[in-house]
Structures are given as C-alpha cells and as structure tokens.
C-alpha cells in the first residue's frame, strides 16, 4: 500500500519505510558536508532572510540554482511571494551570519551595519565572497519543504580580491572550514 503526497509532488510514499524516522534521517544527513548560504529577499513587510545548506547548481545554460525552505520556516510566506532572491555563499569568517540567520526572524536584520539594499530591493550582506541574485522561476512543494528554482541574473564574486576566503561548511551539526588534502 502506498500513501500519496499531494498530487503536485508526484511522489508516492510506501507505507513501510523500514524504520526510517525523521531523527535517523537527520542524524545520517549530518555526515554529509554542505556549504552554508544565506538567502535574502525583499518582502512587503521588509527584509527577510534565512540560512540554507541545500543550495545546488542545476544548469549552466541557462544558469539555474535551487535551494529548499521548510514549510514551517518563518520565512516561507515571504519566499512564496518573492520574485527574486540573493544567495550569499558564506566565507569561514562569517559563521556569525550563519548563526544570526538561523535565529528568530526579528534578529536577522537588526544590525544595519551588516547589510545594505541592492537597487532592485533585495538585502545584500557585507563581506560575502560570492553572491548571486536570482529571479524565482519555480516553487515546487515537495514533502515538508518547497524547492525553489531560480535563474541567476547577477553574480558578485570577490574571490580574486580575497583569495584566502575559504567557504564556511556545515558538517555533523557544527561549522567547519575546508582543508586541502595532499596529492
């Protein structure tokens, strides 16, 4: 017997998932390192942002990206209404931003010295080695999240100016910096 998710997901869930609990799945996924991004957007009530480790490149031509947002997120309604977003690739020196954007919504933009606004209205964080501005192309409800697909319309890359800026990684519930392996 299979329990179906809402029709827009197109995924059928078998009744028996062999003991795969949310806790087991979450604990296992902590062993897969991910780059840390902060997604920001402009909303009718002001700037909105959240930390996301689900960022992925989808296509080179056209330049498409994706990330997920939980249906329980305080930012979900703003995300569902957004026309564009800015995805910030955090550097190892920006752990404080990852933590800030994981906290309650009212604290995220409280320090005005950490961000400014683009001419298109989206908030952009200072000191981020790379950020993309993307227009929202698709919102796909899937499980307990929504998959956001965006078309990259602007790339801001300062890695040539700051070549030592290593990315911030999230692994086993903690923040890390990458280290090079010997050849």
UniProtKB/TrEMBL annotation:
Keyword Oxidoreductase assigned: yes
Superkingdom in the source lineage: Bacteria
Keywords of the record: Oxidoreductase
Domain Flavin reductase like: 29-177
Pfam families per the UniProt record, alphabetical: Flavin_Reduct (PF01613)
Family, as annotated: Belongs to the non-flavoprotein flavin reductase family.
This protein's name: Flavin reductase (DIM6/NTAB) family NADH-FMN oxidoreductase RutF
Organism: Nocardia goodfellowii
């Amino acid at each position: 017997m299979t329990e179906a998710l809402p029709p827009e997901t197109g995924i059928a869930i078998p009744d028996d998932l062999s003991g795969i609990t949310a806790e087991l799945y979450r604990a296992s996924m902590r062993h897969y390192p991910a780059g840390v991004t902060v997604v920001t957007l402009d909303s009718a009530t002001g700037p909105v942002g959240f930390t996301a480790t689900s960022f992925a490149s989808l296509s080179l031509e056209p330049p498409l990206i994706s990330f997920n947002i939980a249906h329980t997120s305080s930012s979900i309604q703003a995300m569902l209404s957004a026309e564009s977003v800015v995805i910030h690739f955090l550097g190892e020196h920006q752990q404080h931003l990852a933590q800030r954007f994981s906290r309650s919504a009212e604290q995220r933009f409280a320090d005005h010295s950490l961000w400014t606004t683009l001419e298109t209205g989206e908030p952009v964080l200072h000191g981020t080695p790379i950020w993309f501005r993307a227009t929202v192309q698709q919102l796909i409800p899937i499980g307990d999240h929504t998959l956001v697909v965006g078309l990259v319309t602007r790339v801001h890359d300062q890695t040539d100016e700051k070549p030592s800026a290593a990315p911030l990684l999230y692994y086993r519930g903690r923040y890390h910096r990458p280290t090079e392996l010997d050849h």
